[in-house]
Every structure is written in structure tokens, then in C-alpha cells.
Design a protein that fits this description.
This protein is α/β, with parallel strands linked by helices. The chain contains 5 helices and 5 strands, in the order E-H-H-E-H-E-H-E-E-H. The structure holds ligand CA2.
Length: 149
């Protein structure tokens, strides 16, 4: 049996984690987040590929790549959540489970953050739990993949 691969994609400005707005996004860096995901994945027996891009087209190309290579997708589309029909369309074309994650509770924030196009394409959405949201998304995907076997 092969180890399932989960893509963990992060959108624009998440490379700045830990440098500004700690009251909203915490003090951990993107490297810290990647370490947490790697430790969680190891415990669950899944493989991960964690990436970050500031470019909409690059994120869409990675979603296309996930179609062929990944068993599941976790995505924090960041600002593109609220603007990108193209990213939503790319995710709608997937036939693997998808979980959208936001560090902050977008429903407690400005009205423009309270709608996510990506949520229309995601199987589940986790927000407001900080880095733990990624850990919980990995656990949920691992459960879903086990159930599908
Ligand atoms: O809460 C989330 O995870 C968001 O996806 C983060 C996005 C924001 O546009 C979404 O509405 C909610 C912003 C990511 C920017 O992250 C920064 C972190 C530190 C310093 C500056 C930006």
C-alpha cells in the first residue's frame, strides 16, 4: 500500500507569518507551520508537500498538479479566498477531498473576509484555530482517506 500524499497550499502573504499582526495570525512562522504539519503527518502515516505562493496562477497550477499526484488537499487561499473564481473553479475540478483552512476566524472580521469563493468548492472549512487548524485538517483528511479505502 502506498503512503497517501496530501498537498498543503498557502496563499499570498503567508510567507510573512510571524513578522506582523501577531494578534491576528500568532507569532509562529511559515517554517514553524511546516514543521507542525510534518510532525502531524508523520504521526498519521501520510506524506505532505507544503508550498506557499504569492501568485494566483501558481496556486492554480499546483491545484492542477494535485489532481494527478495528491490524495487530498489542504489550502489556505489567504486573500484569494475572497476574490478568486479561477481558484474556486480549479478546486471544483478536483475529485479528491479538500479542506480550506484559515488561521483567523474570518467571520469575526471585516465583511469582505466573510465570504470565500473557495468554500463553495471545499468539503470542509476550518477557521479561527490558528496553526491547530492545519493539524486538525490533516487528521480529518487522513480519516476520510482511510474511510475511502
Ligand atoms: O486567517 C487566514 O488564514 C487568512 O486566510 C489570512 C489572509 C487573509 O487575507 C484572509 O482573509 C484570512 C492573510 C494572510 C496574510 O498573513 C500575514 C501574516 C503576517 C503578516 C502579514 C500578513
Amino acid at each position: 500500500m502506498t503512503t497517501p500524499l496530501i498537498f498543503v497550499l498557502n496563499g499570498p502573504n503567508l510567507n510573512l507569518l510571524g513578522t506582523r499582526e501577531p494578534e491576528v495570525y500568532g507569532t509562529g512562522t511559515l517554517d514553524d507551520l511546516e514543521t507542525l504539519c510534518a510532525e502531524t503527518a508523520e504521526g498519521l502515516g501520510v506524506a505532505i508537500d507544503v508550498r506557499q505562493s504569492n501568485l494566483e496562477g501558481e496556486l492554480i497550477s499546483w491545484v492542477h498538479e494535485a489532481r494527478a499526484r495528491a490524495a487530498g488537499l489542504i489550502i489556505n487561499p489567504a486573500g484569494y479566498s475572497h476574490t478568486s473564481v479561477a481558484l474556486m473553479d480549479a478546486i471544483l475540478a478536483l475529485d479528491i477531498p479538500v479542506i480550506e483552512v484559515h488561521l483567523s476566524n474570518i467571520h469575526k472580521r471585516e465583511s469582505f473576509r466573510q465570504h470565500s469563493y473557495v468554500s463553495r468548492a471545499a468539503d470542509g472549512v476550518i477557521c479561527g484555530l490558528g496553526f491547530a487548524g492545519y493539524r486538525l485538517a490533516l487528521i480529518a483528511l487522513s480519516d476520510i482517506l482511510e474511510e475511502d479505502q
